[in-house]
Write a structure and sequence with these properties.
CATH topology: Deoxyhypusine Synthase
Radius of gyration: 23 Å
Order of helices and strands: HHEHEHEHEEHEHHEHEHEHHEHEHH
CATH architecture: 3-Layer(aba) Sandwich
Shape: globular
Oligomer: single chain
Mean pLDDT: 92
Strand order of the largest sheet: 7-2-1-9-10-11
Strand content: 5-15%
Number of helices: 15
Length: 380
């Protein structure tokens, strides 16, 4: 029998772009010219984000790693994502949130060069993040603000990192207004919009370092990491039980990526609640999967852990690209093609979501105990 030519593999659109004129919008450029290799994956990422993840019934969680806020992406990219309702909750490194505060305080960071002599910079009191320069006093001023705010009475208790960031964001917003600034701080905007922001390693940043210093001085402020684990799981469970879907937008890798994805194993494996995994998985990364690190782990691997619904693997994309390139492009594409979504204001719904999680956990626990008791009797 003569083989059928192509066997269906040639059904994709022909590669036949039009010449770039310089008048294209970002979305038009991506759809016309980003046809293969990592550009092709970025186009697929844009369409997954806009066509499926931004449906009204989808709850979008975002993880953020790498020094994105010092590079200005908080203001240029992430704040617009929050304001458009494209990100409903976040997990970030503490460093991104600390450096985010500089801008709200009117402190300046500058474009520099990665080829400077770091010994000279140190002697001149200049700190470098690759090609970003700022005065060492920026750190000292931000440290002083974090300590002064965190010493206030409303902070003197155990709280989730989302509660801490919400309170801190309120003070950053007030400082912005006092300085005549607007929308400089991701934390300040998240406070206004009710977007909960967690950090997976509260002690691993200058915010955590300053809180630790205050603990030595008698502060009662403590980060409740168990509350973080359970609240994030409750957000995902609520998304699914309310008839919707859960989407993971992963910018980078590291601990925030795992903290976002582990919500499903927490629900299924630890709490014993019947669930299937996240519905959509969009990762923007420069990490390889073959080194065994979580940062490069694929959605297929995540399926084996119960992190991603196996039936939804077609709704996953990994784009291997620097996030300072991919995030602004995806944001511009989504703003052009979708415009805006209704805000979910999940921060203010935390108690109700936790109540649902507790009900289902108790039910699952009772079922497990009943089954264990039956098995014990059968062995007698």
């Amino acid at each position: 029998m003569k083989p059928t030519r192509g066997r269906g593999h040639l059904r994709g659109p022909r590669i036949n772009p039009t010449a770039i004129t310089g008048k294209e919008s970002v979305a038009e450029l991506i759809d016309n010219a980003f046809l293969a290799y990592n550009a092709g994956r970025l186009r697929e990422a844009c369409h997954l984000f806009c066509d499926r993840m931004l449906a009204p019934n989808v709850t979008v969680g975002m993880s953020l790693t790498g020094a994105m806020t010092p590079a200005g992406l908080g203001m240029s990219t992430i704040i617009p994502l929050l304001e458009a309702g494209f990100v409903d909750w976040m997990i970030s490194t503490g460093a991104n949130l600390y450096h985010d505060a500089h801008f709200a305080l009117g402190l300046s960071l500058h474009q520099g060069t990665p080829f400077a002599d770091d010994v000279v910079l140190r002697n001149d009191g200049v700190v470098r993040i690759y090609d970003i320069f700022f005065d060492y006093k920026v750190l000292l001023s931000t440290d002083a603000f974090v300590r002064e705010v965190s010493a206030r009475e409303e902070f003197q208790r155990s709280m989730s990192s989302a509660e801490y960031h919400y309170l801190l964001g309120g003070y950053l917003h007030q400082r912005e207004k006092a300085l005549g600034l607007s929308k400089r701080s991701l934390l300040g905007v998240a406070h206004q919009l009710g977007v909960p922001i967690y950090t997976s390693s509260p002690g691993d940043s200058s915010i955590g370092m300053n809180v630790a210093e205050q603990a030595l001085a008698g502060s009662r402020l403590r980060f409740d990491v168990s509350a973080d684990v359970n609240e994030t799981a409750a957000i995902v469970l609520e998304a699914k039980r309310s008839g919707g879907k859960s989407a993971a937008l992963i910018a980078g890798g590291g601990s925030p990526k795992n903290f976002l994805l582990q919500t499903e194993p927490q629900i299924q494996e630890v709490l014993g609640i019947d669930e299937r995994g996240h519905d959509y998985f969009l990762q923007l990364t420069d990490a390889r999967p073959d080194t065994g690190g979580l940062s490069g782990a694929t959605p297929g691997e995540a399926v084996s852990w119960g992190k991603v619904d196996p039936d939804m693997l077609p709704g996953t994309v990994v784009c291997y690209l620097d996030n300072t390139v991919s995030l602004p492009l995806i944001t511009a594409f989504a703003k052009e093609r979708v415009g805006k979504r209704r805000l979910k204001r999940l921060y203010h719904r935390r108690e109700a979501m936790m109540a649902r999680l507790m009900r289902e956990y108790r039910s699952a626990l009772a079922f497990r105990n009943k089954r264990a008791e039956a098995a014990k009797k059968s062995r007698r």
